[in-house]
Design brief:
With about 675 residues, this protein is α+β, with helices and mostly antiparallel strands. It is built from 24 helices and 24 strands. It folds into 5 domains: about 90 residues, no CATH class; about 230 residues, 3-Layer(aba) Sandwich (D-Maltodextrin-Binding Protein, domain 2); about 100 residues, PAS domain (Beta-Lactamase, 2-Layer Sandwich); about 70 residues, no CATH class; about 150 residues, Histidine kinase-like ATPase, C-terminal domain (Heat Shock Protein 90, 2-Layer Sandwich). The strands form 6 sheets. Strands 6, 7, 8, 9, 10, 11 and 12 form a 7-stranded mixed beta sheet that branches. Strands 14-13-17-16-15 form a 5-stranded antiparallel beta sheet. The longest helix is centred in the middle third of the chain and has 54 residues. InterPro entries: HATPase_C_sf (IPR036890), HATPase_dom (IPR003594), His_kinase_dom (IPR005467), HisK_dim/P_dom (IPR003661), HisK_dim/P_sf (IPR036097), Sig_transdc_His_kin-like_C (IPR004358), Solute-binding_3/MltF_N (IPR001638).
């Protein structure tokens, strides 16, 4: 069924494409691809071509009203074609200068390159000298005879006749192409040809319809003439250029197309020629036929689609019914498979459903519990007593539901166990609860484990406090040691009892110092003593110091390091580097996150990566983070020395440190350090 719909949609798409293509042919005489191409803006290459030839020069007929006429007294050149050329200039975005002249001279000027453009009706003869654009307007040719002449009634009656015509006019070529042998008398314009006809020097005059009609309307003896009913040609006019400049045509075609699309041609036609339609073939009937055919086809397709749709809906309903049955069974299995206790109560305060875990706890069969009052279940009864009848209120009072928060958790003790209860109103209908779902979790063991964890954290905190106290104790112990040293000089050979007391004090100070040394193992920088150190063990040892901070902030720690990487290094320096980087990562993840530490080896170097997904470092400050006393933390929250110390220690062990970070996406500190002396490496 889906395949049929796909096929139909493809057919509709193809039909629409064909319709649009045909419509564009009727409206603009172009297909879809041509429409897209002509609608596009001028390319940089096309603009270069226009700049190459500008200003363009248009050579037009000096005396061919209303198409174009030049008034010598005010130096004005106006007319239908003149306005079209001006509109073309606007579309092209370049200046087109009009140069009016006698028609045959205009043709010669275009041929010799004195002008760039000229409007004309294309023909095979003219095509030898000129290249043509898309049509810009239409023209019909008319035959004019004396009203008393009954011999000439159509084009072929001109055979053997004398015809007055404007020099270079398309009519000469067209009549000759029809095999008509006529004697042409050429004039500079149509007005002169009509004057020859008036004086009976020619039998007929031929020319462009708007020009002939214009002059006849101007003549006081117009009734002496008769225009033959049928035009002898109806053809398009184009913009012609010389063959050497035919690269202009593609650009001119775009401009002409945009003029047609905007209706510019039609507006200019209405200005100069009124509502006449001779410049454009009437294609309204063809459009009507096209739209009617499209409508009928669409009606048929839509009708068949409705049939298929109804049929598919029926099949879909059957399919969905089966799926719902399967989903119901799956939900029932899930409902019964959950370890939490689940029970559904109705508005009648009776049990509508209960899962297997709850039944196992109650040690009852499902059939005996269903449709029984929820108050028969001791756990729910205890809950109602402790919460002022909340279940009863939710099922019987609609306004209670409005202010109820389903995210709230309730705790209740029953039969020596601790339970957490959540209530979810179901199927609200106009503030009326149809059912409620109660979820009950036994959290007894969880709460016990939480208490154990709290105790463990307290012990860790006490350990950290002891380490802090150890720092404070070292100074007084030093004073005691110095004092006993002074007393030795005084009593060593004189008083045996006091000497023994001083030795006891010394031994106690040594013992206290060893304890303090252990407590300060991770906070003391030692001298430059290098030793072979297992990298993974060192990382784990340092990371263990921050377990409490990591847990408190919800930060997960993962260490990815090869087991057998051994490095010859001052381990205390490396510890302090890692401690500062881990502390920095923890501070960047106040809302929790993930901390990953990688250790790997390559060539004679070790790479350590400390990666977090915290707030990250802004790009504008990333170059300053290793500067001493530079910090972005609030006053009192940081000294700005942590990363500086890490950087300094890395430099001391001949390593390199860099940071990769993006704002709000975390930071990764990368440390490269050498294995150690090559001679020592070879010995080991």
């Amino acid at each position: 069924m889906k395949r049929r719909f796909v096929v139909f949609f493809i057919l509709i798409f193809i039909l629409l494409v064909v319709y649009v293509n045909k419509y564009l042919e009727l409206e603009y005489n172009v297909n879809i691809l041509e429409y897209i191409q002509l609608s596009s803006d001028f390319t940089s290459k096309e603009k270069e071509i226009l700049n190459k030839y500008q200003p363009l020069i248009y050579g037009g007929n000096i005396n061919e009203p209303p198409l174009g006429i030049y008034y010598e007294e005010n130096k004005q050149y106006v007319g239908f074609v003149v306005d079209l050329i001006n509109a073309l200039s606007i579309e092209l975005g370049v200046t087109i200068a009009s140069k009016p002249m006698v028609w045959n001279e205009a043709l010669e000027a275009l041929m010799e390159g004195e002008t760039d453009l000229c409007d004309m009706t294309p023909s095979a003869k003219r095509a030898k000298s000129f290249a043509f654009s898309a049509p810009i307007y239409r023209l019909r040719g008319l035959i004019v005879v004396k009203d008393s002449n009954n011999k000439i009634n159509d084009l072929y009656d001109l055979d053997g006749m004398t015809i007055g015509v404007q020099k270079g006019d398309y009519s000469i070529e067209f009549i000759a192409s029809q095999g008509i042998n006529a004697d042409f008398v050429c004039t500079d314009n149509v007005y002169q040809a009509l004057d020859l006809l008036y004086n009976n020097e020619v039998d007929a005059v031929v020319g462009d319809e708007p020009v002939i009609r214009y002059y006849l309307n101007e003549l006081h003896y117009a009734d002496d003439y008769r225009i033959l009913e049928e035009p002898f040609y109806d053809d398009v006019c184009v913009i012609a250029v010389s063959k050497e400049k035919k690269e202009l045509l593609r650009i001119i075609d775009k401009a002409i197309f945009n003029m047609k699309r905007k209706g510019t041609n039609r507006k200019i036609q209405m200005k100069w020629l009124g509502y006449t339609t001779f410049l454009r073939k009437n294609k309204s009937l063809e459009k009507l036929k096209l739209n009617l055919a499209m409508f009928l086809i669409l009606v048929m397709i839509i009708g068949y689609l409705i049939y298929l749709w109804n049929r598919s809906l029926k099949l879909l309903v059957n399919s969905r019914t089966k799926e719902l049955e399967i989903m119901k069974n799956e939900l029932e299995i899930t409902f019964n498979g959950m370890e939490n206790f689940l029970i559904v109560l109705g508005t009648d305060l009776k049990v509508k459903n209960i899962n297997s875990s709850f039944l196992k706890y109650l040690k009852k069969e499902k059939e005996k519990v269903l449709d029984s009052s929820f108050k028969d279940i001791q756990l729910l009864c205890d809950f109602e007593k402790q919460n002022n009848g909340l279940i009863h209120k939710l099922l019987s009072c609609p306004h209670e539901v409005n202010g109820f928060n389903p995210q709230k958790k309730y705790e209740i003790k029953s039969k020596g166990s601790l339970f957490q209860i959540s209530i979810y109103p179901l199927e609200r209908k106009e503030y009326e609860v149809v059912n409620i779902l109660i979820m009950i979790s036994d959290i007894t063991n969880t709460r016990i484990q939480e208490q154990k964890l709290i105790h463990s954290n307290k012990m860790e905190t006490i350990g950290q406090l002891a380490a802090g106290m150890a720092h404070e104790l070292r100074n007084p112990l030093g004073v005691i040691r110095n004092s006993t040293f002074i007393l030795y000089d005084e009593y060593e050979q004189k008083d045996e009892l006091k000497t023994m007391a001083l030795e006891a004090i010394d031994n106690s100070v040594d013992r206290a110092s060893r304890i303090i040394e252990n407590l300060l193992n991770f906070s003391r920088l030692t001298h430059d003593v290098k030793a072979w150190t297992n990298l993974k063990e060192l990382i784990k040892e340092v990371a263990s110091l921050y377990k409490k901070a990591l847990d408190e902030q919800g930060i997960t720690l993962n260490i990815f390091c090869e087991e057998d990487i051994v490095i010859y290094i001052n381990s205390e320096s490396l510890k302090h580097i890692l401690m500062n980087l881990i502390k920095n990562a923890i501070d960047a993840m106040e809302g929790g996150g993930a901390l990953e530490i990688y250790g790997s080896s390559y060539s004679q170097k070790i790479e350590i990566r400390v990666k977090d997904n915290g707030i990250g470092i802004e790009e504008e400050i990333i170059d300053r983070i290793f500067d001493p006393f530079y910090t972005t933390k609030a006053v009192g929250k940081g000294t700005g020395l942590g990363l500086y110390i890490a950087y300094s220690e890395v430099q001391k062990i001949n390593g390199d440190i860099k940071v990769l970070s993006e704002k709000n996406k975390g930071a990764t500190f990368v440390i490269d350090i050498p294995y150690g002396s090559e001679e020592i490496w070879e010995q080991n």
